[in-house]
Specification:
Largest sheet: 9 strands, antiparallel
Number of helices: 5
Order of helices and strands: EHEEEEHEEHHEEH
Pfam families: Pyridox_ox_2
CATH topology of the largest domain: Pnp Oxidase, Chain A
CATH architecture of the largest domain: Roll
CATH class of the largest domain: Mainly Beta
Helix content: 10-25%
Protein name: Flavin-nucleotide-binding protein
CATH superfamily of the largest domain: Electron Transport, Fmn-binding Protein, Chain A
InterPro entries: Pyridox_Oxase-rel (IPR024747), Split_barrel_FMN-bd (IPR012349)
Strand content: 35-45%
Distance between the termini: 34 Å
Organism: Tenacibaculum todarodis
Length: 219
């Protein structure tokens, strides 16, 4: 079992029993989604922005406009932190203090690199689209050169990371379990609704099979 080395930077202090540094477990959490939160400093102010991403090995890729201040800021600083979190349930306790959530979260620390070559940028954009909707890229028109020129693709190398996972029930005070108060878990999951065609020609077309497959797997 390969683990990220624990350090002052990535070590989980609160709730250490829920921490994991296992690389495979962390990658599984990353691969379960496509939205991350990227932190940066802009003119001395801390800001966090949600971004679409994809993962390949120990690399995370994000993209945006060549004028995107967040991407430009993190490239200038040459490092950042990225967080991914999945909400799995509401934990409703007998006391307001002990209400919680079940979740899987990962915090990544690493360095950055700007992708320059068009063929590399195109391949990464394909990965990002397909992480959002599997097998979707090949159904799209090719990118125009002007679109590619206006797109900034950033490679984030994971140098260290940690994850926290809560997947247990209510943790009340011992004396509260006898109280006549309902407590329990409300499972939470993200689901897909039936695809809605765009106006115009798509309304006259059949929905692509890979889109229907995604709906069936996630409804």
């Amino acid at each position: 079992m390969k683990e990220y080395k624990k350090s002052k930077l990535n070590r989980v202090k609160r709730g250490q029993n829920r921490a994991t540094y296992d690389v495979e477990k962390i990658n599984t959490i990353l691969d379960a989604g496509f939205l991350c939160y990227v932190g940066y400093i802009y003119e001395g102010k801390p800001i966090t922005i949600p971004m679409a991403y994809t993962r390949r090995d120990n690399k995370i890729y994000i993209h945006g406009s060549t004028a995107n201040r967040m991407l430009l800021s993190i490239l200038e600083s040459e490092e950042t932190s990225i967080t991914v979190m999945h909400l799995d349930g509401l934990v409703l306790a007998r006391s307001g203090l002990h209400h919680s959530v079940n979740y899987r979260s990962v915090t990544l620390f690493g360095s950055l690199n700007k992708i320059e070559k068009d063929e590399e940028k195109t391949a990464i954009l394909k990965w990002i689209v397909n992480q959002m909707m599997p097998n979707h890229w090949d159904s799209l028109r090719p990118m125009y050169q002007k679109e590619l020129d206006r797109t900034l693709v950033v490679e984030f190398t994971i140098e260290t990371a940690s994850a926290k996972i809560r997947d247990t029930g209510v943790a009340d005070e011992p004396e509260d379990y006898a109280l006549p108060i309902w407590a329990g878990i409300v499972p939470i999951k993200q689901v897909a609704g039936y695809p809605i065609s765009d106006k115009g020609k798509p309304e006259e077309m059949g929905i692509p099979q890979h889109v229907l497959d995604y709906y069936e797997q996630n409804k």
